[in-house]
Amino acid sequence: MTTADLSALLNREQADAELFDLLRIPSVSADPTRRAEMGQAAEFLRAKLSGLGFSARVDATAGHPVVYAEHLKAPGKPTVLIYGHYDVQPEAPLEEWVTPPFEPTVRNGRIYARGSTDDKGQAYAHVKGAELLLAQGELPVNVKFLLEGEEEIGSPNLEAYLREHEAELKADVIVISDGSRFAPEIPTITYGVRGLSYVEIHVQGANRDLHSGSYGGAAPNPINALAEIIAKLKDDQGRVTIPGFYDGIDELTEEERGMWSSLPHSDDEFAASIGVPALPGEAGYSTLERLWGRPTLDVNGIWGGYQGEGSKTVIAAKAGAKVSMRLVPGQDPERITQLITDYVPTIAPAGVTAKVVPHHGGRPFKFDLNSPYNQAANRALKRVYGREAVFARTGGSIPIVAAFADILRAPVLFVDMGLNEDAPHSPNESFAVQDYHNGILTSAYLLQELGQ
Amino acid sequence: MTTADLSALLNREQADAELFDLLRIPSVSADPTRRAEMGQAAEFLRAKLSGLGFSARVDATAGHPVVYAEHLKAPGKPTVLIYGHYDVQPEAPLEEWVTPPFEPTVRNGRIYARGSTDDKGQAYAHVKGAELLLAQGELPVNVKFLLEGEEEIGSPNLEAYLREHEAELKADVIVISDGSRFAPEIPTITYGVRGLSYVEIHVQGANRDLHSGSYGGAAPNPINALAEIIAKLKDDQGRVTIPGFYDGIDELTEEERGMWSSLPHSDDEFAASIGVPALPGEAGYSTLERLWGRPTLDVNGIWGGYQGEGSKTVIAAKAGAKVSMRLVPGQDPERITQLITDYVPTIAPAGVTAKVVPHHGGRPFKFDLNSPYNQAANRALKRVYGREAVFARTGGSIPIVAAFADILRAPVLFVDMGLNEDAPHSPNESFAVQDYHNGILTSAYLLQELGQ
User: Fold this and answer.
1) How does pLDDT run across B61-95, given as a tens digit for each residue?
2) Which residues form the Peptidase M20 dimerisation domain (chains A, B) (predicted)?
């Protein structure tokens, strides 16, 4: 079957109309008043998949239900588990939407609706991809759909679901389309995610707030001390100073650095897009390398003393900060958390005590660039876009990857269909009509290529 | 007249009873429901001074009234303006008072009541001191009383009052008793106050909050940057690094350093009293030198990013801090504010912009240790305590000193009667009965000595 074949066979009008029906359901998982709509969206997907010949059901969880469907009629062929989610972000602030969030509207070639790209549009593209293939005969691989309803609230019940259905969910590869390609014309395969260690630093000075006149010059100041500690956590080359922090890191390969350096990226444009005059970071690495392949240390919040209007001449008793470190393959979140926990007290200035309180962590992942799954995805994308895919990583951390790796023990293949400009989580979220249609074709070709 | 004379002539029971009547009036200037009580306290003092032969009146202001009284029957003798205040701090939290704040009670030789030491007790001691002298004849100097009702809310109308009554208030020296002696047995003359420059530092990163996964490693982090800026404002010797900060400072004299080093001060006890393991500060100076005679830089408040429960992986768009610098004679608050305003942007790390927003300032003051006024006070205190006074400075800033210096152009003589343990501004404020009585004698002897 050639590219032309499937593209010609896709009924785009019909595909759009079905997605619009799904987008009209306000399935906001964070909103307790919308439990009925959550069930409605799940049933919509179940019914659709059932109609395609999948064995499909809606499974209750302690939270919102999971849609599970399977089509296992390709003996001897790989099994592909497609993960997606049918819940969406809250639509607030409503007044910023040009058209209502749950009335999908096409403007300038884009479908505007909450969930259009994240993740109803991308998940439904896989449903339509399977349909496209089924219209021609059987599926070339065994296919399982796992469409959850709690991704936007942190997937609190997914891990339990995976454990409970471990045997049933068994797959050779897990396909996720829930993100952005590098640029409009560029098909992208994401093969790595960063991990995370999130902690708080607490600094204690005197046993009470002190008057800065009566005590200033002799009493330790925990805010000044906290600033000193934070400043010491990085050197003047932007490197984290925690002893052992970089130990064991999988350094970027020449292949990766070469690949990324050839991408159409402009530091000036990137800086301008966020309104800053420079992009500081670890010396010796490009911006993309720092975003995707190097660890970070960022203070996410800080507090202490008087924050109100006007002035108060107080030396606070305590101060604190939230600090997150993005981690890369080779770094273990628990070990890194221990390292900073041990290190911070040693760099606290005299007079104060500083301690680290761990919050949570997430493991970094990197999948084999040259795995047959990545190669199959690359071939599929080339059939759609006419060019090789870019192999990128993402700077973010995707906690479900660890759950898939630990429980289902299968590699994850990220085939993103969206773009950053889709503005997921923001008002006026959208998904390019062309990207939706390309996504459907990508899904169909990917199943074909995985069947080779 | 000898020490024994006046001490024997003081009717202590009567003095206590009168002060208790004044303390029973809940003259809380911050409480708008107590305007009547404010007027009542002012009238109490006016009537008392009038009864002593002073020409006394209650002057309305835009806020609470001023009690002004004068007794000018010593031609050719100096004129002494005694400043005090009859307003008190709010009594909250009421439940922490052992006995009610406006029912003065003596326990273990201490008068417990709101305002007992701050400042009704100390101000009224001067009234009683004048009475004691008047019982023997005329006052040895010309005496003016200026008793305001807004000290605890920042004296918002005092400057206007001083300007309006500049000629009338003219004096050779201004006596203030509104603070603490160094230690119970030690008479203390405070001859210097620190000044203040209070600013905010604002740091701006990107034009919006960013996701720390997607942007961490490339986007500038204004909280990290603020911490770096703050850390750079002092060196590892505890010295402020702002260029020119120490220029022109009146260095501590050998006389002052010698005087203070002989005071009964223990760093260990001081550290223990505020619960800290060390007293960091500028290298090369003792704790008392750092508190009284050296400038400081303390962050009084800091904020930025996410301060709530749990975690949020955000790179904030902005961060800020409130910073105060206590200043010593030779430092001009406006110049210091300009120096930090110029300096901070130059030490901001790449990618962020930092600016300083001035708040307010206050001038440092130091009065001549060997002035005739200080010598007279020392002689008076020696007659009460049987030992020389300690010449101390205070680390705090007393804004009214500048108003007195600028408008009345007279030196200020601080003759403190209280102790730190009096706990002004706290529940269970108290004033030792002995300190009250000594204060009355001090006041009387001071007027005598100033008349020599």
Assistant:
1) 999 999 999 999 999 999 999 999 999 999 988 99
2) 192-350
Three-class SS state of A412: strand
What radius of gyration, in Å, describes the C-alpha atoms of chain B? 25
Q: What is the pLDDT of residue B80?
A: 98
Burial class (CB in 10 A: 0-12, 13-18, 19+), A381: buried
Chain position carrying tokens 């008190």: B88
Question: Checking DSSP bridges between strand A298-305 and strand B298-305, what pairing results, if any?
Answer: antiparallel
Write out pLDDT tens, residues A357-410.
999 889 999 999 999 999 999 999 999 999 999 999 999 888 889 899 999 999
Q: Do A324 and B304 touch (CB under 8 A)?
A: no
Q: With beta carbons less than 8 A apart as the criterion, state whether A236 and A393 touch.
A: no
Q: Quote the tokens at residue A1.
A: 């079957």
| Adjacency order of strands within the sheet including B105-107 | B105-107, B110-112, B430-432
Distance CA A410, CA A407 (A): 8
Place of tokens 């939270």: A63
- Domains in chain B (CATH in brackets) are 3-193+364-451 (3.40.630.10), 195-249+295-362 (3.30.70.360)
Q: Is A154 within 8 Å of chain B by CB?
A: no
Chain B, window 222-251: residues with a beta carbon less than 8 angstroms from a chain A beta carbon: 223-224, 226-228, 230-232, 234
Q: Decide if A151 is catalytic.
A: yes
The answer to whether the beta carbons of residues B215 and A291 sit under 8 Å apart is yes
Contact predicate B444/B80, CB 8 Å: no
C-alpha to C-alpha distances, A250 to A215, A368, A407, nearest whole angstrom? 50, 13, 24
- Give pLDDT, residue A263: 93
**Which residue in B277, B299, B324 is closest to A351 by CB distance?**
B277
Please calculate the CA angle B301-B306-B308 and round it to the nearest 5 degrees: 90
CA pair distance A169, A80, nearest whole angstrom: 10
Kindly report the backbone phi and psi dihedral angles of residue B227, in degrees, each rounded to the nearest multiple of 5, phi listed first: -60, -40
Q: What percent of chain A has pLDDT over 70?
A: 99
ipTM over 0.85: yes
Work out the burial of residue B371: count CB atoms within 10 Å of its CB; fewer than 13 is exposed, 13-18 middle, 19 or more buried: middle
Assess A214–B contact: CB distance below 8 Å, yes or no: yes
Closest Cβ opposite residue B350 in set A221, A278, A397: A278
Residue given tokens 């301060």 in the structure block: B307
* In the predicted structure, residue A301 carries a pLDDT above the cut 70: yes
Strands A353-362 and B353-362: unpaired
Q: What is the pLDDT of residues B351-374, one digit of tens each?
A: 999 999 999 889 999 999 999 999
Q: Give the confidence band of B1 by pLDDT, cuts at 50, 70, 90.
A: very low
**Phi, psi (deg, nearest 5) at residue A106:** -95, 125
Dihedral of alpha carbons B92, B93, B94, B97, sign: negative
CA distance B51 to B141: 19
